[in-house]
Amino acid sequence: MTRAIILMKLTEQGIKDIKNAPRRIEEGIKGFEAMGGKVTDFYSVMGEYDYVAITEAPSDEVAMTFLLALGSLGNIRTTTLKAFTREEFAQMVKKLP
């Protein structure tokens, strides 16, 4: 399971059609779930980004495929941060020389 934090900014197209954004968000979440992914949290935020999603996917390839499909719709641009749990991080640190 791969985890990611996805930071999203609305494009000009996305903000012009903001009234349909809630529907697009729900459709996007359902599409990701159909690929085996899960959105554990989703927020609309103020500041540099417009939305933040915390996600899990069966693989990096599934996550990337979804992000490419999402971006191709033209309503948002994404920045993705691969995330590790505290436990995963602790295991990595244990392996340090």
Q: Tell me what the CATH architecture is.
A: 2-Layer Sandwich
Name the shape in a single word.
Answer: elongated
Number of helices: 4
Q: What is the radius of gyration computed over CA atoms, rounded to a whole number of angstroms? A: 15 Å
Strand content: 25-35%
Number of individual domains:
1
Largest sheet: 4 strands, antiparallel
What's the helix-strand series?
EHHEEHEH
Q: Tally of extended strands?
A: 4
Average pLDDT over all residues: 97
Low-confidence stretches: none
What is the CATH class name?
Answer: Alpha Beta
End-to-end Cα distance: 27 Å
CATH superfamily: Lrp/AsnC effector binding domain/regulation of amino acid metabolism (RAM) domain
- This entry's quaternary arrangement is single chain
Structural class determined from secondary elements: alpha+beta
Describe what this molecule looks like in 3D:
The chain is α+β, with helices and mostly antiparallel strands and 97 residues long. It has one domain (2-94): Alpha-Beta Plaits (2-Layer Sandwich). Helix content is 42%, strand content 32%. The protein has a four-stranded antiparallel beta sheet. A hairpin with a 6-residue loop joins strand 2 (38-44) and strand 3 (51-57). The radius of gyration is 15 Å and the shape is elongated. The mean pLDDT is 97.
Looking at this protein, list some descriptive labels.
Alpha-Beta Plaits
